[in-house]
Write a structure and sequence with these properties.
Mean pLDDT: 91
Largest sheet: none
Strand content: under 5%
Order of helices and strands: HHHHHHHHH
Low-confidence stretches: 1-6
Distance between the termini: 76 Å
Radius of gyration: 21 Å
Shape: elongated
Number of helices: 9
Length: 152
């Protein structure tokens, strides 16, 4: 028969953090917030997060890369993705490194999102304005949206 060893606070916070990371990538800020909500102290959270980063379990760069790919696949534009990443504590230089910068790429994405949502481009001002607002809410720039409607 095996005897269960009592869990130390250090092991408990580490196990909680690894459990969170096992489900999906998390930014450092997300992990910090979730661990704080579980009642762990700020110093033990900071120590644990440093250890996880040093051991390669947590990486803001890896999180940003996977998050960007997921959001692009879901039909979101560069403005919204960058905003969401900044809200998750990702540094602007990491966002810039992994978010595609080519305008042609985002123009094609905007067309793809538009075509998946709407059947045809409308000449009616009200309908076109609603369609443009949809693309704007998805995080595409005015330039990218105008590119979608250049033929109308």
């Amino acid at each position: 028969m095996t005897v269960k060893q009592p869990q130390t606070a250090k092991n408990k916070i580490l196990q909680n953090a690894i459990k969170l990371l096992a489900t999906r990538e998390h930014s450092r800020m997300e992990l910090q917030r979730k661990l704080a909500n579980k009642g762990f102290s700020a110093t033990s959270i900071a120590t644990t997060l440093q250890k996880l980063a040093a051991d390669g379990w947590q990486s803001d760069e890896r999180f940003a890369e996977s998050y960007i790919a997921l959001r692009i696949k879901s039909g979101y534009g560069p403005v919204k993705i960058a905003y969401e990443l900044s809200n998750r504590g990702i540094a602007p230089e990491i966002v810039h490194k992994y978010l595609p910068q080519e305008s042609e790429y985002w123009q094609k994405q905007a067309i793809k999102v538009y075509n998946s949502k709407f059947s045809a481009k409308e000449n009616d001002y009200k309908t076109r304005a609603k369609q443009m607002c949809f693309l704007q809410s998805r995080g595409f720039t005015t330039e990218q949206i105008n590119f979608v409607f250049k033929d109308v």
